[in-house]
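Why should sequence recovery work at all? Because a backbone constrains its sequence more than one might expect. Tight turns favour small or flexible residues, buried strands favour hydrophobic ones, and helices have their own preferences. The token representation captures these environments compactly. In the example below, the structure is given first.
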């Protein structure tokens, strides 16, 4: 029985490494994203503005979908980091393009305009799904 447990736990160090790095990358994305946006997500979320939480949450999900795909498809830690960087850049560019398409996007989210928040969340997730699907090992 101990041999079976050791066998099943042999992948634990890789799990901890990839999971920890993935969590760190998610935090990094969140920090960069909140710096890039014209509105202050955390202030708005603490003030109970659902539009800010929805837009930010959708953006996080849009990033983590390709991040998970990169984790699954990568052949090395370096490969994973490269594809994670691609996912990060794609999501940041997506938000920048949305800002061009929707005038005053930051103000609209700050004013709790749900249509703008839903658009940001769903476009972020849609782009994240496409990004994840395009990552082939």
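From this structural description, the recovered sequence reads:
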């Amino acid at each position: 029985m101990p041999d079976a447990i050791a066998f099943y736990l042999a992948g634990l160090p890789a799990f901890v490494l990839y999971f920890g790095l993935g969590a760190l990358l998610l935090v990094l994305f969140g920090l960069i994203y909140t710096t890039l946006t014209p509105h202050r997500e955390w202030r708005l979320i603490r003030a109970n503005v659902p539009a800010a939480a929805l837009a930010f949450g959708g953006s996080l999900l849009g990033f983590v979908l390709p991040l998970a795909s990169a984790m699954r498809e990568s052949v090395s830690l370096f490969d994973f980091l490269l594809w994670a960087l691609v996912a990060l850049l794609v999501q940041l560019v997506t938000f920048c393009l949305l800002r061009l398409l929707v005038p005053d996007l930051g103000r609209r989210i700050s004013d709790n305009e749900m249509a703008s928040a839903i658009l940001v969340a769903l476009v972020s997730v849609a782009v994240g799904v496409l990004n994840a699907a395009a990552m082939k090992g």
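A few observations help interpret the result. The CA atoms of residues 11 and 87 lie 25 Å apart.
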